[in-house]
Amino acid sequence: MTEPKPRLLSLDFFRGLTVAAMILVNNPGSWGHIYAPLEHAEWNGCTPTDLIFPFFLWIVGVSIAFAMSSSKTDPLTHQKTIIKAIKRGIILYLLGFFLAIFGKIISAITDGRSIWEAFQTVRLLGVLQRIGIVFIISSIIFIKASNKTIFKILIVILALYWALMTFIPVPGVGYPNMEKETNLAAWIDRGILTEAHTWASSKTWDPEGILSTLPAVGTCLFGILVGVWMRRKDVDNPTKVAWLFTAGITSVILGLLWDLQFPINKALWTSSYVLYAGGLASIGLALCYWIIDVQGYKKFTTPFVVYGVNAITVFFLAGLMPRVLNLIQITKPDGTKTGLLVRFYETCYSPFFSPVNASLVWAITYVLGFYVLLYFMYKKNIIIKV
After folding, report:
1. Among the three residues 296, 326, 358, which one is the final residue of a domain in this structure?
2. In terms of C-beta distances under 8 Å and separation of at least 24 residues, what long-range contacts does 164-167 make, across chains too?
3. What residue ranges are annotated as transmembrane (predicted)?
4. Cα separation values, 244 from 55, 167, 283, 286, 296, Å
């Protein structure tokens, strides 16, 4: 815990808005009853929900530019900063791994099985794991490379990933393709991670898989370049905003054009998706920066700023809480048992709303409940960093 340092309010607001949206879509009352905008696209395409994760990685990039710029200009601190970034990235990975294995360990203990069985089927990659890996790679690139080189690396990443996915024949298939189970990224995941350690909902591919982490790094580098631009002292605010809007709109257009040949796809994190989502994030931050930091309209920001300053903390807790509470088993009138949180939803929400609205109200309640905790932390100047 540490006292908060002066921060870019619009960035905290934008980060908080993103994390609150992430918790909203990750915690419906029922996965079978969700409004369409709160679901991921079936495969190709992009819903508002598909923008949340790339927005967060993009924001990580902006934050790297703000937090590490002084170290970048001082070669004596390069090694220390890189070691610190590696430690933070490893902690993020381990937090994600803990969420993945927590329930499996409890189930193994409850059923009298060996804990080792949990490790044999645990998912190795995931959201926090990807954030940690991308943070390490992007931090090293930022510290070691010039801004022009970072831009070139971004271009190379997008072009290389496009070439790999569209020109390399997939072993066992014989031709390059973009289908769920037969694309190159899925083949690599099955070969290296094995089906036992991929996403449980698919078993044959992972939306946070190995190869697709490459363009995810591109998303973070995109954010770094924006952060470098926002930190410039020789450019006035109107110019910063105007160029950021221009870059964002241009990136969206390029992403949509590329989509005609290399479809926008979150699960594969395609290059067109990087440009499209990164462009929209640029537009979003430009708007927030102009309204909040330049024009000074700040009163409405608090609810999301409290999410933004403790983003990883609330994301981790939001993932851990249902796992813990559902360990408490409640016996239903018919004699069957269910988790405490599930039973609470069935008793206090399902009877009073239509299925899809009950699911939405539950998710909103979840967000508001964590807001109470985060507001307390915010008022006490408590920021938990990893």
Report:
1. 296
2. 164/211, 165/262, 165/268, 165/270, 166/261, 166/262
3. 12-31, 51-69, 90-110, 122-143, 150-170, 209-229, 241-261, 273-292, 304-325, 359-378
4. 15, 33, 7, 6, 19
Q: Look at residues 296, 321, 340 and tell me which one is the last residue of a structural domain.
A: 296
Q: Which residue has the higher pLDDT, 386 or 149?
A: 149
Half-sphere exposure of 302 (CA within 13 A, CB side): 8
Question: Mapping DSSP to helix (H, G, I), strand (E, B) and coil, where does residue 45 land?
Answer: strand
Token pair 């991921």 in the structure block, residue? 40
Residue 7: the pLDDT is 67
* Dihedral sign from CA coordinates of 110, 114, 115, 118: negative
The token duo for 36 is 């369409």
Comparing 10-14, 113-117, 165-169, 226-230, which segment has the lowest mean pLDDT?
Answer: 113-117
Predicted confidence at residue 47, as pLDDT, reads 96
Range of the domain at 354: 11-39+301-385
In a domain, 141, yes or no: yes
Q: Does residue 4 lie in a domain region? A: no
Q: How confident is the model at residue 87 (pLDDT cuts 50, 70, 90)?
A: very high
Distance, CA of 49 to CA of 36 (rounded, Å): 9
Whether 331 and 337 have beta carbons less than 8 Å apart is answered as: yes
Domain tally, the chain: 2
376 neighbors 368 (Cβ within 8 angstroms): no
* Dihedral angle sign, alpha carbons of residues 196, 200, 205, 210: negative
- What digits encode the pLDDT tens for the residues 192-228? 999 989 988 888 889 999 999 999 999 999 999 999 9
pLDDT at 4: 42
Instruction: Read off the DSSP letter of residue 4.
Output: P
Phi, psi angle pair for 210, to nearest 5°: -70, -55
Contact 208, 127 (CB under 8 A): yes
Q: Which residue intervals of 232-301 are DSSP H helices?
A: 237-259, 271-288
Task: Summarize the confidence of residues 27-34 as an average pLDDT.
Answer: 92
